[in-house]
Amino acid sequence: MTVRVRFAPSPTGMFHVGGARSALQNWIFAKQQGGVFVLRIEDTDAARNKPEWTEGILSALDWIGISRGSYEGPYFQSANAGEHRAAAARLYESGRAYYCDCTREDVQARTGSQYQGYDGYHRDRGLGPGPGHALRFRTPDEGTTVVVDLIRGEPTFENKLIEDFVIARGDGSPVFLLANVVDDMTMGITHVIRAEEHLPNTPKQQLLWEALGVKPPVWAHVPVVVNEKRQKLSKRRDKVALEAYRDEGYLAGAMRNYLMLLGWAPSGDREIVPWSVIEDEFRLDEVNLSSAFFDEKKLRAFNGEYIRALPVAEFVDACQPWLTGTGTIPPPPWQPEEFDADAFAAVAPLAQTRIAVLSEIVPNVDFLFLASPLIDEAAWTKTMKDGSAELLDDAVAAFEALESWDAESLKSTLEAVGAERGLKLGKTQAPVRVAVTGRTVGLPLFESLEVLGRERTLTRIRAARLRLV
Ligand code: GLU
Predict the structure, then answer these.
(1) How confident is the model at residue 80 (pLDDT cuts 50, 70, 90)?
(2) Which residue has the CA at smallest separation from atom 2 of ligand 1?
Protein backbone atom coordinates (compact mmCIF):
# COMPACT_ATOMS: atom_id res chain seq x y z
CA MET A 1 0.00 0.00 0.00
CA THR A 2 1.38 3.37 -0.96
CA VAL A 3 1.20 5.87 1.84
CA ARG A 4 -0.75 8.96 0.81
CA VAL A 5 -0.96 11.97 3.08
CA ARG A 6 -2.51 15.32 2.48
CA PHE A 7 -2.24 18.85 3.68
CA ALA A 8 -5.67 20.46 3.47
CA PRO A 9 -5.61 24.17 4.35
CA SER A 10 -8.61 26.46 4.03
CA PRO A 11 -7.68 29.60 2.09
CA THR A 12 -9.26 32.00 4.56
CA GLY A 13 -6.28 34.09 5.62
CA MET A 14 -2.54 34.36 5.81
CA PHE A 15 -0.72 31.06 6.08
CA HIS A 16 -0.46 30.12 9.76
CA VAL A 17 2.85 28.88 11.18
CA GLY A 18 0.94 25.99 12.78
CA GLY A 19 -0.25 25.02 9.30
CA ALA A 20 3.28 25.19 8.00
CA ARG A 21 4.37 22.82 10.73
CA SER A 22 1.60 20.31 9.86
CA ALA A 23 2.55 20.59 6.20
CA LEU A 24 6.19 19.81 6.98
CA GLN A 25 5.26 16.88 9.20
CA ASN A 26 3.10 15.44 6.42
CA TRP A 27 5.83 16.11 3.91
CA ILE A 28 8.53 14.33 5.91
CA PHE A 29 6.26 11.43 6.78
CA ALA A 30 5.43 10.91 3.10
CA LYS A 31 9.10 11.06 2.18
CA GLN A 32 10.11 8.56 4.87
CA GLN A 33 7.39 6.13 3.78
CA GLY A 34 8.10 6.48 0.08
CA GLY A 35 4.62 7.95 -0.14
CA VAL A 36 2.80 10.80 -1.81
CA PHE A 37 2.01 14.26 -0.44
CA VAL A 38 -1.25 15.70 -1.72
CA LEU A 39 -2.18 19.35 -1.43
CA ARG A 40 -5.88 20.03 -1.19
CA ILE A 41 -7.28 23.50 -0.87
CA GLU A 42 -10.48 23.32 1.19
CA ASP A 43 -12.27 26.18 -0.48
CA THR A 44 -15.90 25.37 0.18
CA ASP A 45 -16.50 28.30 2.51
CA ALA A 46 -17.16 30.66 -0.39
CA ALA A 47 -17.79 33.65 1.85
CA ARG A 48 -14.34 33.51 3.44
CA ASN A 49 -12.14 32.22 0.63
CA LYS A 50 -10.07 34.42 -1.59
CA PRO A 51 -7.88 33.33 -4.50
CA GLU A 52 -4.98 35.38 -3.12
CA TRP A 53 -4.99 33.30 0.05
CA THR A 54 -4.60 30.18 -2.08
CA GLU A 55 -1.71 31.77 -3.91
CA GLY A 56 -0.25 32.75 -0.53
CA ILE A 57 -0.40 29.13 0.64
CA LEU A 58 1.31 27.87 -2.51
CA SER A 59 4.10 30.41 -2.33
CA ALA A 60 4.61 29.99 1.42
CA LEU A 61 4.86 26.21 1.00
CA ASP A 62 7.30 26.75 -1.82
CA TRP A 63 9.41 29.00 0.38
CA ILE A 64 9.54 26.44 3.17
CA GLY A 65 10.72 23.73 0.78
CA ILE A 66 7.50 22.09 -0.36
CA SER A 67 7.90 23.25 -3.90
CA ARG A 68 5.29 23.45 -6.59
CA GLY A 69 5.41 20.49 -8.89
CA SER A 70 6.92 18.19 -6.25
CA TYR A 71 3.57 17.15 -4.81
CA GLU A 72 0.22 15.99 -6.10
CA GLY A 73 -2.29 18.79 -6.56
CA PRO A 74 -3.33 21.34 -5.65
CA TYR A 75 -6.82 19.91 -5.75
CA PHE A 76 -9.73 22.10 -4.85
CA GLN A 77 -12.43 20.81 -2.55
CA SER A 78 -15.08 22.76 -4.45
CA ALA A 79 -14.34 20.69 -7.55
CA ASN A 80 -15.44 17.58 -5.69
CA ALA A 81 -18.89 18.91 -4.72
CA GLY A 82 -20.68 16.27 -6.80
CA GLU A 83 -18.93 13.49 -4.85
CA HIS A 84 -19.87 15.10 -1.55
CA ARG A 85 -23.54 15.17 -2.52
CA ALA A 86 -23.42 11.63 -3.86
CA ALA A 87 -21.97 10.40 -0.57
CA ALA A 88 -24.71 12.18 1.38
CA ALA A 89 -27.32 10.55 -0.87
CA ARG A 90 -25.72 7.11 -0.39
CA LEU A 91 -25.81 7.49 3.38
CA TYR A 92 -29.49 8.44 3.21
CA GLU A 93 -30.39 5.60 0.87
CA SER A 94 -28.62 3.04 3.02
CA GLY A 95 -30.47 4.26 6.11
CA ARG A 96 -27.31 5.60 7.75
CA ALA A 97 -28.66 9.13 7.59
CA TYR A 98 -32.09 10.67 7.93
CA TYR A 99 -33.77 14.02 7.38
CA CYS A 100 -34.69 16.32 10.19
CA ASP A 101 -36.35 19.74 10.21
CA CYS A 102 -35.91 20.58 13.89
CA THR A 103 -34.67 23.98 14.78
CA ARG A 104 -32.32 24.49 17.70
CA GLU A 105 -35.25 25.92 19.65
CA ASP A 106 -37.29 22.77 18.99
CA VAL A 107 -34.53 20.62 20.44
CA GLN A 108 -34.13 22.93 23.39
CA ALA A 109 -37.83 22.89 24.12
CA ARG A 110 -37.85 19.08 24.11
CA THR A 111 -34.68 18.49 26.09
CA GLY A 112 -35.09 21.44 28.42
CA SER A 113 -31.45 22.35 28.00
CA GLN A 114 -29.50 24.49 25.63
CA TYR A 115 -26.41 22.35 26.20
CA GLN A 116 -27.98 19.06 25.23
CA GLY A 117 -27.09 17.79 21.78
CA TYR A 118 -29.66 16.65 19.25
CA ASP A 119 -32.11 14.17 20.77
CA GLY A 120 -32.72 11.93 17.75
CA TYR A 121 -36.31 13.09 17.37
CA HIS A 122 -36.51 12.37 13.64
CA ARG A 123 -34.58 9.12 13.68
CA ASP A 124 -37.58 7.00 12.83
CA ARG A 125 -40.16 9.51 11.66
CA GLY A 126 -39.50 8.97 7.98
CA LEU A 127 -39.19 12.62 6.98
CA GLY A 128 -38.14 12.93 3.35
CA PRO A 129 -35.86 15.45 1.68
CA GLY A 130 -37.15 18.99 1.28
CA PRO A 131 -36.22 22.61 1.74
CA GLY A 132 -34.98 23.20 5.26
CA HIS A 133 -34.50 19.50 5.92
CA ALA A 134 -31.02 18.78 7.19
CA LEU A 135 -29.49 15.37 6.78
CA ARG A 136 -28.25 13.81 10.00
CA PHE A 137 -25.98 10.84 10.46
CA ARG A 138 -27.43 8.03 12.53
CA THR A 139 -24.67 7.32 15.03
CA PRO A 140 -24.59 3.87 16.60
CA ASP A 141 -26.38 3.58 19.95
CA GLU A 142 -23.81 1.29 21.39
CA GLY A 143 -20.18 0.44 21.29
CA THR A 144 -17.15 2.61 20.92
CA THR A 145 -15.23 4.23 18.12
CA VAL A 146 -11.54 3.60 18.48
CA VAL A 147 -9.32 5.96 16.60
CA VAL A 148 -5.84 4.73 15.75
CA ASP A 149 -3.62 7.74 16.27
CA LEU A 150 0.14 7.64 15.76
CA ILE A 151 0.68 10.25 18.46
CA ARG A 152 -2.09 9.51 20.94
CA GLY A 153 -2.41 5.74 20.84
CA GLU A 154 -6.05 4.75 20.65
CA PRO A 155 -8.39 7.49 21.81
CA THR A 156 -11.73 5.80 22.36
CA PHE A 157 -15.11 7.47 22.08
CA GLU A 158 -18.43 6.18 23.40
CA ASN A 159 -20.82 6.11 20.46
CA LYS A 160 -23.84 6.90 22.59
CA LEU A 161 -22.23 10.22 23.47
CA ILE A 162 -21.92 11.22 19.83
CA GLU A 163 -25.08 12.99 18.71
CA ASP A 164 -26.67 12.40 15.33
CA PHE A 165 -24.69 15.13 13.65
CA VAL A 166 -25.61 17.06 10.53
CA ILE A 167 -23.88 16.00 7.31
CA ALA A 168 -25.84 18.17 4.86
CA ARG A 169 -27.57 21.48 5.53
CA GLY A 170 -31.20 22.38 4.89
CA ASP A 171 -30.23 23.63 1.41
CA GLY A 172 -28.71 20.24 0.59
CA SER A 173 -25.08 21.36 0.80
CA PRO A 174 -22.79 18.87 2.55
CA VAL A 175 -20.94 20.18 5.62
CA PHE A 176 -17.17 20.33 6.02
CA LEU A 177 -17.02 17.16 8.10
CA LEU A 178 -18.42 15.07 5.26
CA ALA A 179 -16.66 16.89 2.42
CA ASN A 180 -13.33 16.40 4.17
CA VAL A 181 -13.96 12.64 4.54
CA VAL A 182 -15.17 12.19 0.99
CA ASP A 183 -12.13 14.01 -0.38
CA ASP A 184 -9.75 11.95 1.70
CA MET A 185 -11.53 8.85 0.47
CA THR A 186 -11.52 9.76 -3.21
CA MET A 187 -7.89 10.83 -2.97
CA GLY A 188 -6.91 7.52 -1.38
CA ILE A 189 -5.50 9.13 1.76
CA THR A 190 -4.01 6.57 4.13
CA HIS A 191 -2.77 8.85 6.95
CA VAL A 192 -4.39 12.03 8.19
CA ILE A 193 -1.84 14.13 10.05
CA ARG A 194 -3.44 17.33 11.33
CA ALA A 195 -3.84 19.66 14.26
CA GLU A 196 -5.28 18.44 17.54
CA GLU A 197 -8.19 20.86 17.27
CA HIS A 198 -9.76 18.45 14.79
CA LEU A 199 -9.70 15.52 17.20
CA PRO A 200 -13.32 16.04 18.35
CA ASN A 201 -14.35 15.59 14.70
CA THR A 202 -12.41 12.41 14.29
CA PRO A 203 -14.81 9.83 15.76
CA LYS A 204 -17.61 11.32 13.64
CA GLN A 205 -15.44 11.24 10.57
CA GLN A 206 -14.34 7.71 11.25
CA LEU A 207 -18.00 6.64 11.56
CA LEU A 208 -18.58 8.23 8.14
CA TRP A 209 -15.69 6.29 6.62
CA GLU A 210 -17.10 3.08 8.03
CA ALA A 211 -20.63 3.88 6.93
CA LEU A 212 -19.38 4.58 3.41
CA GLY A 213 -17.72 1.18 3.45
CA VAL A 214 -14.08 2.24 3.33
CA LYS A 215 -11.36 1.44 5.82
CA PRO A 216 -10.57 4.62 7.78
CA PRO A 217 -7.12 6.16 7.61
CA VAL A 218 -4.58 6.13 10.40
CA TRP A 219 -4.73 9.45 12.22
CA ALA A 220 -2.14 11.63 13.89
CA HIS A 221 -3.32 14.66 15.82
CA VAL A 222 -0.47 17.02 16.47
CA PRO A 223 -0.66 19.22 19.60
CA VAL A 224 -1.43 22.87 18.97
CA VAL A 225 1.08 25.69 18.96
CA VAL A 226 0.66 28.25 21.75
CA ASN A 227 2.01 31.67 22.73
CA GLU A 228 3.92 32.56 25.90
CA LYS A 229 0.64 32.67 27.84
CA ARG A 230 -0.10 29.13 26.71
CA GLN A 231 -2.94 30.41 24.52
CA LYS A 232 -3.47 28.81 21.15
CA LEU A 233 -1.76 31.03 18.57
CA SER A 234 -4.42 33.23 17.08
CA LYS A 235 -4.22 35.38 14.00
CA ARG A 236 -5.94 38.23 15.79
CA ARG A 237 -3.55 38.31 18.72
CA ASP A 238 -0.27 36.78 17.66
CA LYS A 239 2.12 37.06 14.77
CA VAL A 240 1.21 33.83 13.03
CA ALA A 241 1.58 34.48 9.31
CA LEU A 242 4.45 32.62 7.73
CA GLU A 243 4.56 35.38 5.11
CA ALA A 244 5.20 37.97 7.85
CA TYR A 245 8.24 36.05 9.05
CA ARG A 246 9.47 35.64 5.50
CA ASP A 247 9.12 39.37 4.82
CA GLU A 248 10.91 40.21 8.03
CA GLY A 249 13.88 38.24 6.83
CA TYR A 250 13.72 34.87 8.45
CA LEU A 251 15.55 32.28 6.40
CA ALA A 252 13.44 29.40 5.18
CA GLY A 253 15.99 26.92 6.56
CA ALA A 254 15.84 28.43 10.04
CA MET A 255 12.08 28.62 9.96
CA ARG A 256 11.49 25.03 8.99
CA ASN A 257 14.11 23.77 11.40
CA TYR A 258 12.43 25.74 14.19
CA LEU A 259 8.92 24.61 13.22
CA MET A 260 9.98 20.98 13.39
CA LEU A 261 11.33 21.50 16.91
CA LEU A 262 7.89 22.41 18.18
CA GLY A 263 7.16 19.34 20.22
CA TRP A 264 10.02 17.23 18.92
CA ALA A 265 13.82 17.21 18.97
CA PRO A 266 16.52 15.42 17.03
CA SER A 267 18.89 13.07 18.83
CA GLY A 268 21.89 14.18 20.84
CA ASP A 269 20.64 17.34 22.48
CA ARG A 270 20.90 19.25 19.21
CA GLU A 271 18.54 21.87 17.90
CA ILE A 272 20.15 23.37 14.84
CA VAL A 273 20.69 20.50 12.48
CA PRO A 274 20.80 19.99 8.73
CA TRP A 275 17.41 19.40 7.22
CA SER A 276 18.50 15.91 6.15
CA VAL A 277 18.89 14.96 9.82
CA ILE A 278 15.33 16.05 10.52
CA GLU A 279 14.10 14.14 7.51
CA ASP A 280 15.88 11.02 8.77
CA GLU A 281 15.14 11.26 12.44
CA PHE A 282 11.68 12.79 12.75
CA ARG A 283 9.10 10.35 14.11
CA LEU A 284 5.46 11.25 14.50
CA ASP A 285 5.13 8.94 17.49
CA GLU A 286 7.83 10.95 19.27
CA VAL A 287 5.89 14.20 19.02
CA ASN A 288 5.22 15.53 22.49
CA LEU A 289 1.61 15.40 23.63
CA SER A 290 1.65 18.79 25.33
CA SER A 291 1.14 21.96 23.35
CA ALA A 292 4.22 23.54 21.85
CA PHE A 293 5.36 27.06 22.71
CA PHE A 294 6.15 29.17 19.67
CA ASP A 295 8.98 31.23 21.07
CA GLU A 296 9.68 34.11 18.74
CA LYS A 297 12.81 35.11 20.67
CA LYS A 298 14.24 31.68 20.23
CA LEU A 299 13.33 31.69 16.56
CA ARG A 300 15.18 35.00 16.19
CA ALA A 301 18.25 33.59 17.86
CA PHE A 302 18.02 30.57 15.59
CA ASN A 303 17.75 32.76 12.56
CA GLY A 304 20.79 34.75 13.63
CA GLU A 305 22.78 31.54 13.74
CA TYR A 306 21.55 30.54 10.30
CA ILE A 307 22.50 33.97 8.96
CA ARG A 308 25.99 33.73 10.42
CA ALA A 309 26.45 30.29 8.91
CA LEU A 310 25.89 31.57 5.36
CA PRO A 311 28.87 32.08 3.07
CA VAL A 312 29.24 35.87 2.70
CA ALA A 313 28.25 35.81 -0.97
CA GLU A 314 25.02 34.02 -0.09
CA PHE A 315 24.38 36.48 2.68
CA VAL A 316 24.80 39.33 0.20
CA ASP A 317 22.33 37.65 -2.16
CA ALA A 318 19.88 36.92 0.63
CA CYS A 319 19.83 40.62 1.58
CA GLN A 320 18.88 41.78 -1.91
CA PRO A 321 15.08 41.87 -1.44
CA TRP A 322 15.49 44.27 1.50
CA LEU A 323 18.06 46.38 -0.32
CA THR A 324 15.76 46.90 -3.26
CA GLY A 325 12.23 46.33 -1.92
CA THR A 326 10.69 43.41 -3.74
CA GLY A 327 7.09 42.20 -3.75
CA THR A 328 5.64 42.68 -0.28
CA ILE A 329 8.95 43.90 1.17
CA PRO A 330 8.94 47.72 1.47
CA PRO A 331 11.57 49.70 -0.44
CA PRO A 332 14.58 50.96 1.54
CA PRO A 333 14.90 54.68 2.37
CA TRP A 334 17.52 55.31 -0.36
CA GLN A 335 16.93 55.67 -4.11
CA PRO A 336 18.02 52.75 -6.30
CA GLU A 337 20.74 54.88 -7.91
CA GLU A 338 22.18 55.75 -4.50
CA PHE A 339 22.90 52.10 -3.75
CA ASP A 340 26.54 51.09 -4.09
CA ALA A 341 27.05 47.34 -4.36
CA ASP A 342 30.78 47.54 -3.63
CA ALA A 343 30.26 49.53 -0.48
CA PHE A 344 27.62 47.05 0.59
CA ALA A 345 29.91 44.10 -0.10
CA ALA A 346 32.59 45.78 2.01
CA VAL A 347 30.39 46.02 5.10
CA ALA A 348 28.32 42.88 4.58
CA PRO A 349 30.58 40.61 6.69
CA LEU A 350 30.33 43.11 9.56
CA ALA A 351 26.55 43.17 9.32
CA GLN A 352 26.28 39.42 8.99
CA THR A 353 27.50 38.82 12.52
CA ARG A 354 25.20 41.44 13.99
CA ILE A 355 21.73 40.99 12.62
CA ALA A 356 19.13 38.38 13.56
CA VAL A 357 16.69 38.93 10.68
CA LEU A 358 17.55 40.14 7.19
CA SER A 359 15.33 43.24 7.31
CA GLU A 360 17.68 44.60 9.98
CA ILE A 361 20.24 45.08 7.25
CA VAL A 362 18.51 48.30 6.16
CA PRO A 363 19.00 50.43 9.32
CA ASN A 364 22.54 49.10 9.57
CA VAL A 365 23.66 50.25 6.14
CA ASP A 366 21.36 53.11 5.17
CA PHE A 367 23.98 55.68 6.24
CA LEU A 368 26.18 54.43 3.39
CA PHE A 369 23.70 55.23 0.65
CA LEU A 370 21.69 58.20 1.85
CA ALA A 371 22.98 61.67 1.03
CA SER A 372 22.67 62.54 4.69
CA PRO A 373 22.00 60.12 7.56
CA LEU A 374 18.57 59.63 9.07
CA ILE A 375 19.07 61.14 12.50
CA ASP A 376 17.38 59.34 15.36
CA GLU A 377 16.49 62.40 17.45
CA ALA A 378 16.30 60.51 20.75
CA ALA A 379 19.78 59.09 20.12
CA TRP A 380 21.02 62.56 19.20
CA THR A 381 19.72 64.15 22.41
CA LYS A 382 21.10 61.36 24.54
CA THR A 383 24.54 61.53 22.97
CA MET A 384 25.26 65.16 22.21
CA LYS A 385 26.35 66.65 25.52
CA ASP A 386 28.40 69.64 26.64
CA GLY A 387 31.73 69.31 24.99
CA SER A 388 30.45 67.32 22.01
CA ALA A 389 30.80 70.31 19.69
CA GLU A 390 34.47 70.78 20.55
CA LEU A 391 35.08 67.09 20.34
CA LEU A 392 33.61 66.99 16.83
CA ASP A 393 35.77 69.99 15.86
CA ASP A 394 38.87 68.17 17.01
CA ALA A 395 37.77 64.99 15.25
CA VAL A 396 37.35 66.89 11.98
CA ALA A 397 40.78 68.46 12.32
CA ALA A 398 42.43 65.17 13.15
CA PHE A 399 40.66 63.28 10.36
CA GLU A 400 41.52 65.98 7.81
CA ALA A 401 45.14 65.52 8.65
CA LEU A 402 45.07 61.74 8.30
CA GLU A 403 47.36 60.38 5.64
CA SER A 404 45.71 57.05 5.20
CA TRP A 405 41.92 56.73 5.45
CA ASP A 406 41.70 53.28 6.97
CA ALA A 407 39.89 51.87 9.99
CA GLU A 408 43.00 51.44 12.09
CA SER A 409 44.30 54.97 11.56
CA LEU A 410 40.82 56.38 12.15
CA LYS A 411 40.61 54.52 15.40
CA SER A 412 43.98 55.56 16.80
CA THR A 413 43.36 59.15 15.73
CA LEU A 414 40.02 59.39 17.48
CA GLU A 415 41.41 57.59 20.49
CA ALA A 416 44.03 60.32 20.78
CA VAL A 417 41.38 63.05 20.47
CA GLY A 418 39.49 61.46 23.38
CA ALA A 419 42.61 60.92 25.48
CA GLU A 420 43.30 64.65 25.47
CA ARG A 421 39.98 65.09 27.26
CA GLY A 422 40.41 62.07 29.49
CA LEU A 423 37.70 60.18 27.58
CA LYS A 424 37.63 56.50 26.78
CA LEU A 425 37.11 55.49 23.16
CA GLY A 426 33.47 54.52 23.71
CA LYS A 427 32.55 57.99 24.89
CA THR A 428 34.63 59.63 22.20
CA GLN A 429 33.14 57.72 19.33
CA ALA A 430 29.49 58.06 20.36
CA PRO A 431 28.98 61.63 19.00
CA VAL A 432 30.92 60.75 15.86
CA ARG A 433 28.73 57.71 15.28
CA VAL A 434 25.53 59.69 15.71
CA ALA A 435 26.85 62.45 13.45
CA VAL A 436 27.76 60.01 10.68
CA THR A 437 25.13 57.25 10.91
CA GLY A 438 22.33 58.97 12.83
CA ARG A 439 22.25 56.16 15.39
CA THR A 440 23.91 55.05 18.60
CA VAL A 441 24.25 51.43 17.54
CA GLY A 442 25.39 49.91 14.31
CA LEU A 443 28.30 48.40 12.50
CA PRO A 444 31.81 48.91 13.87
CA LEU A 445 32.42 52.62 13.49
CA PHE A 446 35.88 52.82 12.00
CA GLU A 447 35.27 50.23 9.32
CA SER A 448 32.08 52.13 8.50
CA LEU A 449 33.98 55.42 8.17
CA GLU A 450 36.57 53.76 5.99
CA VAL A 451 33.90 52.57 3.56
CA LEU A 452 31.97 55.84 3.72
CA GLY A 453 35.10 57.75 2.72
CA ARG A 454 36.84 60.87 3.95
CA GLU A 455 34.76 63.48 2.20
CA ARG A 456 31.34 62.22 3.25
CA THR A 457 32.50 61.52 6.79
CA LEU A 458 33.84 65.02 7.23
CA THR A 459 30.76 66.62 5.66
CA ARG A 460 28.55 64.80 8.13
CA ILE A 461 30.60 65.63 11.19
CA ARG A 462 30.68 69.29 10.14
CA ALA A 463 26.90 69.27 9.60
CA ALA A 464 26.37 67.80 13.05
CA ARG A 465 28.72 70.37 14.50
CA LEU A 466 26.61 73.16 12.98
CA ARG A 467 23.48 71.76 14.60
CA LEU A 468 25.19 72.05 17.97
CA VAL A 469 25.83 75.79 17.72
N1 GLU B 1 -9.31 22.62 6.17
C2 GLU B 1 -9.05 22.17 7.50
C3 GLU B 1 -8.27 23.24 8.24
O4 GLU B 1 -7.66 24.08 7.61
C5 GLU B 1 -8.24 20.90 7.49
C6 GLU B 1 -8.83 19.81 8.22
C7 GLU B 1 -8.03 18.54 8.12
O8 GLU B 1 -6.80 18.60 8.01
O9 GLU B 1 -8.64 17.48 8.10
O10 GLU B 1 -8.24 23.23 9.45
Answers:
(1) very high
(2) 9
